Amino acid sequence: MGRRVGLARQTIAAIEQGRHPSSLEVAFRIADGFGKRLGKGFHWNSSRTASPDHDP
User: Fold this and answer.
1) pLDDT for 3-51, tens place per residue?
2) What is the DSSP track for the chain?
3) Structural domain boundaries of the chain?
4) Strand bridging mode 42-43 / 51-52
5) What does the angle CA 23 – CA 31 – CA 6 come to, to the nearest 5 degrees?
6) What's the helix, strand, coil split of the chain in %, to 5?
């Protein structure tokens, strides 16, 4: 996945584990890597930062 979205695999792992602050650039790269619009893969939770659109 890292190669697909242009990020290091360590960055992807850190995001998944909640140890890396997300950014719009990262969110757009991930969405683009899957051929999706940003709003299709992420949602805003006002008590947290943006997160993948699924329950942990």
Assistant:
1) 888 889 898 889 888 888 778 888 888 888 889 888 776 666 767 554 5
2) -HHHHTS-HHHHHHHHTT-S---HHHHHHHHHHTT--HHHHEE--TTS--EESS--
3) 2-46
4) antiparallel
5) 70
6) 45, 5, 45
